[in-house]
């Protein structure tokens, strides 16, 4: 058989898949699924970003509360945490908006689509690799400063001996925070190793195989 | 684009080009379950892509792009995750419309099954170019779908055909 004959055989094949439902129903289902995904993504963003901003509002309310109670030494670390939390939320929000605009279009050429997908994966890797700087350190640092300042205040008010119980509680909070944040960091680095890096290599290989006509 | 216009075009494309999409599906997914998954994914992406279709590209070029782009980045593991959260709306069955000689048809089908198997063994970028070639697209059209130059198409196609011929040893005697 020659390639010309194979081409003819290929084009004469009966590959009309039989759809179990009619096109109208299928269209309805496609629309419904698309809407479902769009709303799932929208609500995921609202949850993640919204939770950060709601937490910031509560923290700010806490600042006002301490201020009104006259406990001004508690205000500045909490205010710092509020600012850092808002900063992290804003960073995530801006990043989502920018990345949404760069989302690859399915009608692009194969090369263009792979390039856009690769850019997205590279950005995801960058985000997760640097999670320490834009997420963990600001929030974790803010929390640690808050816990430490609470400890200091308790010692200053009650004295060292009387505040041992409080100090143990605060120490447990600090250790818990460090462990939690270490866990988040580890999970993110694992996601890079297990999912994103192989994906990046796959897309790079695809792109190279399309670009290099001579296999160089 | 208005929703009803989008719907009309989707139905029209589905009616006219589902065979084209299914060829892509069969070339990238081996099991019936994976084929259902990939076909659904292509339909979803096709639906979304209609909004940005402005008629600059030919309909078949556009549909090839959407189908191949989806198939190339489609991952079984991802699909399984997404599948849990969406309704299964498809159960595709291939129907062989027995026309003409039955033996000839089954012989042809056997050959095509071998070809699909071999295409799935090719690197993804080469399988896409082989698919386009077998469907009879010109070099210009292939370049348009893939986003590479015409000369690049020639080189890549030649290499892909050589690999396919090796995989189909005994069936193809061109190389």
Descriptive key words:
heterodimer, A: 216 residues, mainly alpha, 6 helices, B: 175 residues, Rna Polymerase Sigma Factor, Chain: A, Arc Repressor Mutant, subunit A, 8 helices, globular
Can you give a write-up of this model?
The complex is a heterodimer of chains A (216) and B (175). With 216 residues, chain A is mainly α. Chain A folds into two domains: 29-101; 108-216. Helix content of chain A is 84%, strand content 1%. Chain A contains six helices and one strand, in the order αβααααα. Chain A has helices at residues 3-11, 23-69, 72-101, 110-129, 131-158, 164-211; one strand spanning 17-18. In chain A, helix 2 packs antiparallel against helix 3 (72-101), helix 3 (72-101) runs antiparallel to helix 5 and helix 5 (131-158) runs antiparallel to helix 6. Chain A is elongated. Chain B is an all-alpha fold. Chain B has helices at residues 3-28, 32-49, 59-73, 76-83, 102-121, 124-134, 139-146, 150-167; one strand at 93-94. Chain B has two domains: 1-95, Rna Polymerase Sigma Factor, Chain: A; 98-175, Winged helix-like DNA-binding domain superfamily/Winged helix DNA-binding domain (Arc Repressor Mutant, subunit A), CATH 1.10.10. In chain B, helix 1 (3-28) packs antiparallel against helix 2. Chain B is globular. Chain B starts with a helix and ends in an 8-residue tail after the last helix. The model of chain B has no long low-confidence stretch (mean pLDDT 80). Classes of the chains: A mainly alpha (216), B mainly alpha (175). At the A-B interface, helix 1, strand 1, helix 2, helix 4 and helix 6 of A face helix 1, helix 2, helix 3, strand 1 and helix 5 of B. Strand 1 of chain A pairs antiparallel with strand 1 (93-94) of chain B.
